[in-house]
Amino acid sequence: MNADERLAELGLSLPTIPALPGQVQPMLESVVVHGDLAYLSGIGPIGITGIVGADCSVDEGFAAARGTALLMLRRIHDAFGSLDVVDHWVKVLGFIRSAPGFAQQPAVLNGFSSRARPLRPVGDRNERAPREHSRGSRGHRGA
């Protein structure tokens, strides 16, 4: 079973990344390949607003991070035509808009990890389990 079939088996579909407003043209590439690594530009959750720890809960932030993982997977799919090009995620860096004093950013970022990780069933791809990725999460106040 390939990663695209696994996505369907999980009942998931990749969302469409909306166009930028007006005449805005991105100045950076969404996906840059260097050697065997693909670097992805960040994207936030679409249609979700709020500050975790103030007007939305950890669970709502977790759900937003899961949606963000699907958007990142869409970027990979658009760039390469398939999710099978991904062996594993090397590093994930999450910026979580959070209230002063909020310290559960890693719990929010777990949403991303839980959605991005299970695309390849255990036993597939060289008979080994999917590898974990390194991760960093950071709270910030701005948009």
Short description:
The chain is an alpha+beta fold. The protein contains three helices and four strands.
- The ordered string of helix (H) and strand (E) elements is HEEHEHE
- Which term fits the overall shape? globular
Q: Treating each run of at least 4 consecutive H or I residues as one helix, how many helices?
A: 3
* Text of the CATH class: Alpha Beta
Q: Summarize the main sheet.
A: 2 strands, antiparallel
**Sheet with most strands: strand arrangement:** 1-2
What share of the residues lie within helices? Answer: 25-40%
What does this structure look like?
This protein has helices at 3-9, 58-80, 105-116, and strands at residues 31-34, 37-40, 91-97, 134-140. The chain has 143 residues and is an alpha+beta fold. It has one domain: 60s Ribosomal Protein L30, Chain: A (2-Layer Sandwich). The strands form two sheets. A two-stranded antiparallel sheet has the order 1-2. A two-stranded parallel sheet has the order 3-4. The relative contact order is 0.20. Helix 2 (58-80) packs parallel to helix 3. Residues 122-129 have low confidence and may be disordered.
Quickly list its features.
143 residues, 60s Ribosomal Protein L30, Chain: A, two-stranded antiparallel ribbon, globular, 3 helices, alpha+beta, two-stranded parallel ribbon, 4 strands
Topology (SSEs and partners):
Elements (H helix, E strand, L loop, with lengths): L2 H7 L21 E4 L2 E4 L17 H23 L10 E7 L7 H12 L17 E7 L3
Parallel strand pairs: 3-4
Antiparallel strand pairs: 1-2
Helix pairs in contact: 2-3
